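Case 601 in the screening queue. Each case pairs one protein sequence with one candidate compound; here the compound is calcium ion. For every case the pipeline is the same: read the inputs, emit a complex structure as tokens, and attach any notable structural observations.

Predict complex for case 601.
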Amino acid sequence: ASGHGGARTGLRFEPVEPNTDDAVTIPEGYEQQIVIRWGDPVLEGAPEFDADSQTPESQAGQFGYNNDYLALLAHPENRRQKVLVSNHEYSDEPLMFPGYDGDNPTQEQVEIAWAAHGLSVVVLDEDRRTGALTPVVGNELNRRITVSSEFTVSGPAAGSDLLKTSADAEGTTVFGTLNNCAGGMTPWGTVLSGEENFNQYFANAGQVTDPVAKARLARYGLSGDASERKWEQFDSRFDLLQEPNEPNRFGWIVELDPYDPDWTPQKRTALGRFKHEGAGPRLADDGRVVVYMGDDERFDYFYKFVSDNKMKSGSGKRAREHNRTLLDEGTLYVAKFTGNSPAAEIDGTGTLPSDGAFDGTGEWIALAHGDESFVDGMSAEEVYVFTREASDKVGATKMDRPEDVEPSPKTGNVYIALTNNSQRGTSGKAAADEANPRNANKHGQIVELVEKNRNATGLSFNWNLLLVCGDPEDSSTYFGGFPKDQVSPISCPDNVAFDPHGNLWISTDGNALGTNDGLFSVPLKGESRGQVKQFLTVPVGAETCGPVVQERHVLVAAQHPGEIDGASFENPGSEWPDGPGSIPRPSVVNVTKRGFGRIGC
Ligand code: FEO
Ligand code: CA
Ligand code: CA
Ligand code: CA
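Case 601 output:
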């Protein structure tokens, strides 16, 4: 009777209507529960959150700010527990601190922000009757990784002069990780996390005079004098005039082993340095690992890494140690997309070309392998550290902000969220092409990339646009060929994930249709391909991150609730999740079907 009985397995729910409510809204028949909020205790001895008396020490033992990527893993020993891994992308000081003065932050505020960044590992108890997930404070697997945690630099650029600083003459040890956005799970059970907009933490790029250094800084968005958060006032490594190489030590994919707290997390230089959104690993048929990656900037690129060596199966110590070396040796490629319709038919309006599809072929251009560079005028070390410059030289395709990517565990096809690009087709910028077909692109698109002969390690691929996002009544949108009067509007796709049935789930950031962000499902096969349905919405000012879609759990990270113009600690833009009179707290939400049933069944 509910009108969705014919939907594909995993997608039988009544869609949520777009709204502007300060709440998480979920379908009929589902329940929601807050798993953990910014400031909730994680480590032994950490105090409960107290908005008015935060300290760096308490924050270092509590859940960090702005949860983004989530992984929900089996516990290695206890079947009644799960292991949650969360990124903490950035701190939002005016919303975090009473009386915050952005020109003169206190040392304590800055140190709290350092401790609010990074990652958390938190063991959760699972209630087998309701599906509720509750943190086990002080569990031996629980960890907080912050701006002060030690990382080892690995791979071909480790030890490069470009990575040496006065604190690290070897160029192999970095304290901290910054702006960790999306991520991915390796087939051997470690977590990859992308260091994205690291440029915002460094001061005084505008005072650098050497033209080569200046151009490199500019290509990574480093400019101006004081940094936004003024960290340089409290640690000289954030001042480029004192530590010119410190920014080169951020912008990497980091690998963390949530099951092995004794293993130092690694920055994997073989995967290149850019504004890493996330990483989508896949095992190739021959046992090598392939990692797909986006560089989230207008007109930046899409990449893949192919390992030299094969994964060893099994969960034993020897296999694990071997597999944790796979991302250090391999080839880094950047993508070139070519359309198959006449250029004259791609007019920037989003009107489908006469062959009825935005589609075409593509090639993977090799940039470097180990110590060997394939880019004229650049050493291999330079290719890894200044990867954007290398891709500029080889003619890669400038994309509409490549965000998260996920290969389908069923088919191996790769789904890339291109979130938007307000500058496409504007003066002096690249015009629309078949993969990025709308000028002043406000709503983004989803690319489906199919490796040729299904060979993930190969050099060529086919591609098409699964979705051209926006209001379905807008003629520039496309929903995989599905009738547009039967889909949910969707704008600014950011994170992508798969459910166990092979359906794609998409979360949004910055919905340009005037309603809150949310989480959407879309089938990829058969007659329902392209039928976008909204599963939930997040509170005012929040973006929807994380998503984890398992048989009986949907987890989302509601990031930066209340982040709207003019909002502050004193004048909050949201009171979620704690309710009237409280400040907003980024939180992880667990959605279950009533009775802990199967999602969408
Ligand atoms: Fe941190 Fe590209 O989103
Ligand atoms: Ca075409
Ligand atoms: Ca993101
Ligand atoms: Ca985003």
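Case 601 observations:
- The pocket of calcium ion (ligand 4) is lined by residues 403, 419, 494, 509 (CB under 6 Å).
- Helices lie at 56-61, 93-96, 107-116, 211-219, 317-323, 380-385, 387-394.
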